[in-house]
């Protein structure tokens, strides 16, 4: 009986030691999440794309990634509402850097730069690659331009500048996304106003709106309309056109003479539940495996080891990049977006 009790006591102590070790391994040294805790990713990018990225991360690192999809402005509002109890660890994508720049002022993101990007210049080839105080890092390049249906528009006829869109021949044949809802369109409006001033900018967009046959909320909807023959020309990002082209649809893309060319960033959500996991996921976004997935979705990869799957790359587009006044963006982003409804819609 004594021997049985000693054996039982040993087993209890052994199990207790294993439990303690497991508890130590489940938390990082500062208690901020672990490799076993899930990562929550907020993203407005195509759900199939973000789910593919999440699956690849899970395959490589054995850590669950929960993807939450919504439009850029919806996600920003959600993160604002969750400031007292953040639910996300990583925010990836939003039609370029503008909503991320605005988010710094909103205090919903925090500083983190992967080691692989520490030596990057803040601005390279006229393109801002990361935040100067490390609040975000670029993961790929987006070009804002014009898709067109090659059944209705020849390469020679296609618009080459933003002013070309006001040609009477495009009346009733253009679509662009709603800046009150779409980060893509907010970028379009702010960029034009930075170059030409607000008065001229509002006049331009009133004329452009009069030319359009629809102004949908989704950033990708106008390009889809071009592919379906519901519009001849649409404003959107390059990858949207090349996705349709890869499916055999009669769509091509024009890089305007001077246009926004932006990195699409990833950032760490401030006070998220698993910051260590979030940092690891951002590291992954710059690794070849993730960059290849982005390239396969016709995004321009930022990692030089990964080849673009479209005709565009950093060397072919850098001369078209327009300089963006980020301070002006931070000051006017929300106001301009909100004024669109009163002035245009």
From TrEMBL:
As given in the record, the signal peptide range reads 1-22
Look up keyword Signal and say if it applies. Answer: yes
Return one GO MF term. thiamine pyrophosphate binding
Keywords for this entry?
A: Signal
Which intervals of the chain are annotated as region Disordered? 24-44
Q: Can the keyword Signal be found in this entry's annotation?
A: yes
Gene Ontology CC annotations of this record: outer membrane-bounded periplasmic space
InterPro entries documented for this protein: Ferric-bd
Its GO biological process terms? thiamine transport
Q: What is this protein called?
A: ABC transporter substrate-binding protein
Q: Which organism is it from?
A: Oceanobacillus indicireducens
């Amino acid at each position: 009986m004594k021997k049985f009790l000693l054996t039982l006591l040993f087993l209890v102590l052994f199990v207790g030691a294993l439990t303690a070790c497991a508890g130590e391994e489940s938390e990082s040294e500062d208690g901020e999440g672990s490799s076993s805790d899930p990562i929550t990713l907020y993203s407005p990018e195509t759900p199939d794309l973000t789910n593919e990225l999440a699956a690849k991360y899970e395959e490589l690192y054995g850590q669950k990634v929960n993807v939450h999809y919504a439009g850029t402005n919806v996600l920003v509002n959600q993160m604002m509402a969750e400031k007292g109890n953040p639910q996300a660890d990583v925010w990836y994508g939003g039609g370029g850097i503008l909503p991320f720049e605005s988010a710094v002022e909103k205090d919903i993101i925090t500083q983190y730069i992967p080691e692989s990007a520490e030596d990057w210049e803040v601005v390279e080839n006229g393109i801002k690659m990361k935040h100067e105080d490390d609040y975000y890092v670029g993961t790929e390049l987006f070009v804002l331009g014009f898709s067109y249906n090659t059944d209705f528009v020849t390469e020679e006829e296609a618009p080459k500048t933003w002013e070309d869109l006001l040609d009477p021949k495009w009346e009733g044949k253009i679509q662009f996304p709603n800046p009150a809802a779409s980060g893509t369109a907010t970028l379009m409006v702010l960029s034009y106003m930075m170059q030409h001033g607000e008065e001229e900018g509002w006049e331009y967009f009133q004329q452009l709106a009069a030319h359009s046959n629809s102004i949908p909320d989704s950033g990708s909807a106008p390009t889809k309309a071009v592919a379906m023959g519901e519009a001849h020309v649409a404003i959107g990002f390059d990858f949207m056109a090349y996705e349709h082209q890869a499916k055999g649809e009669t769509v091509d893309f024009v890089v305007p003479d001077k246009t926004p060319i932006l990195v699409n960033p990833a950032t760490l959500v401030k006070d998220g539940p698993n910051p260590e996991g979030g940092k690891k996921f951002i590291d992954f976004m710059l690794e070849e495996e993730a960059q290849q997935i982005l390239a396969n979705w016709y995004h321009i990869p930022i990692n030089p080891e990964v080849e673009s799957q479209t005709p565009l790359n950093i060397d072919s587009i850098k001369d078209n990049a327009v300089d963006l006044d980020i301070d002006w963006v931070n000051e006017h982003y929300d106001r301009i977006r909100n004024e669109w409804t009163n002035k245009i819609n």
